[in-house]
Amino acid sequence: MEDKSLKPLFSVPVIVAALGYFVDIYDLLLFSIVRRPSLTSLGVTESGLLTEGEFLLQVQMIGLLLGGIIWGIMGDKRGRLSVLFGSILLYSLSNIANGFVTTTGQYAVLRFIAGIGLAGELGAGITLVSESLPTRLRGYGTTLVATVGLLGAVVANFVVRLSDWRTAFFIGGGLGLMLLIARVRVFESGVFLKIKEQHIQRGNFFMLFTKRERLLRFLGCIFIGTPIWYVIGILIFAAPEIASVLHVSGKVSSGDAVMWSYIGLAVGDLSSGLFSQLFRSRKKIVLLYVLITFLFVVVYLYSDSITPDWFYFNCFLLGVGTGYWALFVTIAAEQFGTNLRSTVANTVPNFIRGTVVPLTLLFKYLRGEVGVIQGALFVGILTFLIALIAIRLIDETFSRDMNFLEEN
Fold first, then answer.
1. Dist CA 336 CA 403 (whole Å)
2. pLDDT tens digits, residue range 93-130?
3. Whole-angstrom Cα distance, residue 181 to residue 183?
4. What pLDDT digit, counting tens, does each position of 7-41 carry?
5. Which of the two residues, 86 and 123, has the higher pLDDT score?
6. Which domain holds residue 205?
């Protein structure tokens, strides 16, 4: 008789992965929320808030890019749990130290270190959950992790409202250290343990480049996510400046823009995960959400002279459209064998976060040439075209058995 119990969804690995991603998102988005007040208190002038903020964001994303490689390789060589413990310890201590900065230079160094630490949380958590749950529940499990995790941005915004930016960093670091205690009860993936003692090459990052077909799968996994971080890293990050150009009738807060977009992301991740289970397809649902996101981007960029509430509603819609983040990372984990799975699941989301660096540089150039709105639209069209091409490069993995290996 087929087992239809949902009990595995509420197992310790799933719960702890969800809480871990919650803390990860809190810390990852905290800088976007406190960008203006923190930089102002460090002496940055109004005219430099966006450019200085973009620089610090780029530094953080470069840390994520580097950390994705480090933690991904470690996850395949030493195990999923080593990444979960090491990464959260690094970013927790970095965020506590971030609360003591007195210069933008110190700020940059700590955002880079925190970025390295933050890179390990999601990929290791999704890999562990994907390998621990039965195939029929895998999509639900990763959706649950992402939906709970994305609410970390909402909590971060309320913490900033109720305290100052330094305290918000202290709280983020403290939450991470508390999570380490909960992690003691988590066990290593059984799928990984089966191959640990075998003489199999694990965590070889360069294996991704030795076969054309494997490289195309890897690139496809990365670039289907370009619209997500275009929206988060440009449209939401620069929400106050975009609102000013759109003549929004009142003040727009970075924190509220982030909060409403991440509420939308939680809704989108929940719905896209359920739709993928209902229609038994990852690729079709990702394609649908990419197209919906483009529609919402146009609405966001051309809603002139609206109220702040309508502007925040547009931020919410952007979040719903880009709410295929859980599917995106799940697809990456499902595409590759156990000996490369952690490497891919960690590098893919962090490589796509790293695309914020060239995207913001391109946006900076274009807004000087054609203005903020047109510049943002041109960057967006580029990211969506890349995503549509990338969807063609990946396999449908809905019902794939996770117990397989990548050959040399």
1. 10
2. 999 999 999 999 999 999 999 999 888 877 777 777 77
3. 5
4. 878 887 788 888 888 888 898 889 988 999 999 99
5. 86
6. 11-184+199-391
* Count of structural domains within the chain: 1
First and final C-alpha spacing in the chain: 39
Assigned token pair, 247: 């003549």
∠ Cα 309 312 31 (to 5°): 135
For residue range 222-234, list pLDDT tens digits in order: 999 999 999 999 9
């649908």: which residue's tokens? 288
- Rounded to two decimals, the pTM is 0.81
Tokens 């449209």 identify what position? 235
At residue 207, the pLDDT reads 85
SS3 322: coil
| Nearest C-alpha neighbor of 338 from the set 143, 141, 125, 194 | 194
Can you tell me the distance from the alpha carbon of 282 to that of 323, in angstroms, rounded to the nearest whole number?
A: 13
Q: Looking at residue 256, which CATH number applies to its domain?
A: 1.20.1250.20
33 belongs to a structural domain: yes
Q: Which two tokens mark 113?
A: 């270190």
Q: What is the DSSP string of 292-312?
A: HHHHHHHHHHT--S--HHHHH
* Pairwise CA distance, residues 115 & 94, whole Å: 9
121's tokens: 């949380």
Helix (H) or strand (E) holding 34: helix 12-41
Please give the Cα distance from 305 to 297 (Å, whole number): 16
Residue 81 maps to a domain = yes
The alpha-helical segments, DSSP class H, found in 252-282 are 254-279
Classify residue 249 by its DSSP letter.
S
Determine the Cα–Cα distance for residues 126 and 260; give it in Å rounded to an integer: 24
Lookup: tokens for 314: 């547009």
**172, part of any domain:** yes
In a domain, 400, yes or no: no
